[in-house]
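Input.
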Amino acid sequence: MLLMRIDLIKYQALGNDYLVLDLPGALDHLVPMLPVLCDRFRGLGSDGLLAFDPKSMKVRIFNPDGSEAQKSGNGLRITAAHAVLEHGAGDEFELRTVDRANPVRILARNGAEIVCELDIGRPSFCASDLPARFDGEPDRVHLDTSAGRVEAMLVSVGNPHCVVFGEPVTKERCLELGPLLENHSAFPERTNVQLFEVIDRAHARVEIWERGAGYTLASGTSASAVAAACMRAGLVDDRVTILMPGGDLEIQRAKSGNLVQSGPARRVYRARVDLADFS
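Output.
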C-alpha cells in the first residue's frame, strides 16, 4: 500500500469520542480502515470519524463500522469545538449535516474545552421518518425479541431512535437488548436504542446503544430522543437534564418545538497516522 500520512485530532464529549479529519483529506482511503482505526485495542480508539469541511462548515459523520450516520449531537458539538479551536469560528454559526443547518452558539471557552448550545431541530414521531415498519405516529409500539417483548416510542431527531420503556436501566440489559433492537426487522435501516428511567420532572437517567457503534457512554441525539419521548408522554417538563454514564446533557424544548442541547466538548490529542500501519 502507498504510504499515506493523515493528520487527525481526537475530541471527546461526555466520554463519546471522535476522530476529526479536515477536508480535503484522504477520506476514501480512511473510511475502509475505520473498524481497525477506531478499535480501542488495535487502533487509536474512537466512537467514529467526523470529516469536516471548514469552507462550507459541513460535517459528515461515520460510525466505527464505516457506515455513515445522519446526525450526532456529541459529534456536532465536537465539530463546533474544532471549528472554534482550529479554524477561529466565532460565537454563533451553523454546521451543515446531510439533512439541515444546525445553529450553534458558543457559551464558554475554557482552553481545550468548548461549551456550546446546539439546535438539532424538531423531533418527529412519524414511523416513516425513522424509517420503521409501523403506520402513522404510534404512541407506543411493542417489539418481540429473543430477550423478551419490549414497549418503545419511536423518535427521529434526524436519525432513528427506539426509546424503551419499563426496562432495567443497566449496562447489562442495554448490552442484551441493544443489538437485538438495532437490527430488528421493524427497522430497515437499523436504529439507535435507549433504556431510560425518569428521576423527577427535570431529570432522567439513560443507557445507550448506538447504531453502528454499540454501547456508548453518551450520545447527544439519544439524549434528545429520550427527552422528546418523555415530554410527549408528559413525564418531564420542557427543560430536562439527561444523566448518562459519560456525563449530563441539558435538553430544552424551544417555543418552536425544536430541541436545544447544551454541553461541553474537549480536544484530547493530535495524531499523524500512517495508513500503511493499519492495512
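The chain has a mean pLDDT of 95.
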